[in-house]
Amino acid sequence: MRPTLDDISINDTEVRLQLGDPPCPVPEPFAVLLLQLAESRANMNTAANPRARWLFPGQCAREPLNAATIREELRLLGFPGGAVREAALRRLVLQAPAPVVAEMLGYTPQATTRQAAAVGSPWSRCAAGDHSK
User: Per its UniProt entry, which superkingdom is the organism in (predicted)?
Assistant: First the structure.
């Protein structure tokens, strides 16, 4: 995903971010932070990016900030990426069958099935794969 300023929409009651269709509502306090980010983005003083529309503009012209750079910045701020991602995945497989979660998020069915088994998901016996045959 390469979000731009155009992916943020504001109406009378909420801020939304276009991550898919329809746009996702952004809850507080994150909505305020998202709007602050949009107003004061980094890397805007470089000659290559004076009019960049990227939500996370990179240092190179026409390119957003590299995902690895964002991950490293978050790690330096104390956000444990891998552990948080695994915890979120485990929570999701408690709410939906592992193969469905895998398809929605681009994981392999085996990876989500392992997580479902690890947390004792009520969906852990759902078989992965194509059942349309």
Answer: Bacteria
Q: Is 37 helix (H, G, I), strand (E, B) or coil?
A: helix
pTM: 0.57
Question: pLDDT 10s digit of each residue in the chain, 133 long?
Answer: 688 899 999 988 899 999 878 888 999 888 999 999 898 887 677 666 777 888 888 877 678 888 888 888 888 888 777 777 888 889 998 998 888 888 888 889 898 888 898 888 876 565 555 556 6
10 Å CB burial of residue 20 (0-12, 13-18, 19+) is: exposed
The answer to whether 61 and 67 have CB atoms below 8 angstroms apart is no
